[in-house]
Protein: Zn-dependent hydrolase
Organism: Klebsiella pneumoniae
Amino acid sequence: MTALAVSSTRLLGLLDTLATFGPSANGGMNRQALSEEDFQARAWLIDEARKLGCTVWTDACANL
């Protein structure tokens, strides 16, 4: 089995982008489940996963 290499720079960039969905006034992040920010973050995450060739689906509880 081949080990996967993780680019910490790329990972942090993706997490920084994800944190832009629902920023709070104090510099944190507040993205409540099923909120508009949550739907925006999910759409972005689905798009990123599909760019990598992943198949994405949502179950009955809205889990990706």
About this structure: The radius of gyration is 14 Å. The mean pLDDT is 93. Residues 32-64 form one domain.
